[in-house]
């Protein structure tokens, strides 16, 4: 594999790395891939042939990692494959093209409107100063404009989006996109929407922690278990008092099942119960029915009492404490 670089530097000189690499490529790249990039960039100054196996030994990386790294930088258009090897592309030129390509998707009227909006300009300036120390790469500006257009976030929500990702130490495009998609799916557009979303999440987290304590679970809830809690709180609008009644009915189980708890709560929701009193009355009625049926079976000796509506409930509620 032969490595070339357009501008050859004398031996023992510095290896020049453009700042755009640190702002646009390094944050999202695998650390091993960065390691491979830096070393082959260094070697490219000397216009030498190098074997992939030699790279493995020199960098202490497996053949697969070296191959994946080269493939990754090819996909990023940083490396260009030639018959004899690879040549390094100009990173500044790549980003210059990226800068103008997204703007093609925006009409001239939209761009003008954005430029004329003082509030939008102040928002971009705030994001630049707050999260990039005044050094936000120019490629971020069209991306932010497109996010405004795609998600219809107001300026306060866009700032909150960057604040959230910054606090998570994940201020890169892919993560911002994931969070923005999640907020959009929850119908967040205004800051008031975002506050209501945070309130719901705080309520769910609080109930989740109470469930962990009540069931004596010594680990965080799994993603699927947490989704159950969201369903009970947000979709069913149940208070913890109702949820706790279902939790108590797992006391006879060695490993409490969220699936069983969900079946109970779904049944109560389908019956349009909204208070703990309604649930308790229903459970007492079920207990009495179960008792009456057993007495009838004992008296008549008939073991197949025909009550179709009760059969499914019998499996769900049988031998459980109220």
Description of the structure:
The chain is mainly alpha-helical and 322 residues long. It folds into 3 domains: 88 residues, Beta-Lactamase, CATH 3.30.450; 85 residues, Arc Repressor Mutant, subunit A (Orthogonal Bundle), CATH 1.10.10; 124 residues, no CATH class. The chain is built from 16 helices and 3 strands. The chain has a 3-stranded mixed β-sheet with strand order 1-3-2. A hairpin with a 3-residue loop joins strand 2 and strand 3. The chain is elongated, with a radius of gyration of 31 Å. The chain starts with a strand and ends in a 5-residue tail after the last helix. About 2% of the residues have low confidence.
In short:
The chain has 322 residues and is mostly helical. The chain has helices at 19-25, 31-44, 52-59, 63-75, 91-104, 108-116, 118-132, 140-151, 155-167, 173-185, 191-214, 223-235, 240-248, 258-270, 276-300, 308-317; strands at 2-4, 79-81, 85-88.
What's the order of the H and E elements? EHHHHEEHHHHHHHHHHHH
- The overall number of domains is 3
Structure annotation, total helices: 16
Arithmetic mean pLDDT: 82
In what range is the share of β-strand residues? under 5%
């Amino acid at each position: 594999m032969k490595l070339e670089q357009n501008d050859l530097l004398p031996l023992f000189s510095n290896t020049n790395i453009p700042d755009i690499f640190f702002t646009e490529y390094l944050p999202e790249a695998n650390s091993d891939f960065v390691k491979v990039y830096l070393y082959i960039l260094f070697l490219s100054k000397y216009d030498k042939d190098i074997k992939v196996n030699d790279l493995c030994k020199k960098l202490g990386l497996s053949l697969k990692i070296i191959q994946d790294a080269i493939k990754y930088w090819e996909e990023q258009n940083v490396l260009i494959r030639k018959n004899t090897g690879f040549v390094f592309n100009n990173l500044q030129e790549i980003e210059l093209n990226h800068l103008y390509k997204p703007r093609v998707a925006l009409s001239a009227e939209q761009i003008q409107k954005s430029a004329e909006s003082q509030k939008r300009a102040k928002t971009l300036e705030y994001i630049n100063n707050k999260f990039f120390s005044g050094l936000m790469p120019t490629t971020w500006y069209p991306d932010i404009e497109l996010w405004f257009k795609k998600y219809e976030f107001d300026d306060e929500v866009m700032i909150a989006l960057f604040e959230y990702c910054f606090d998570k130490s994940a201020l890169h495009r892919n993560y911002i996109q994931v969070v923005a998609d999640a907020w959009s799916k929850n119908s967040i557009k205004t800051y008031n929407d975002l506050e209501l979303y945070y309130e719901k999440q705080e309520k769910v987290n609080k109930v989740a922690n109470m469930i962990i304590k009540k069931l004596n679970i010594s680990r965080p809830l799994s993603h699927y278990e947490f989704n159950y809690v969201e369903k009970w709180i947000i979709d069913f609008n149940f208070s913890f008092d109702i949820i706790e009644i279902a939790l108590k009915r797992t006391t006879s189980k060695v490993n409490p099942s969220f699936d069983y708890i969900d079946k109970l709560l779904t049944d109560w929701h389908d019956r349009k119960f909204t208070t703990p009193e309604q649930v308790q009355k229903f459970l007492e009625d079920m207990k009495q029915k179960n008792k009456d049926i057993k007495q009838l079976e004992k008296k008549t000796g008939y073991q197949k009492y025909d009550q179709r509506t009760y059969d499914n409930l019998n499996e769900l509620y049988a031998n459980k404490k109220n």
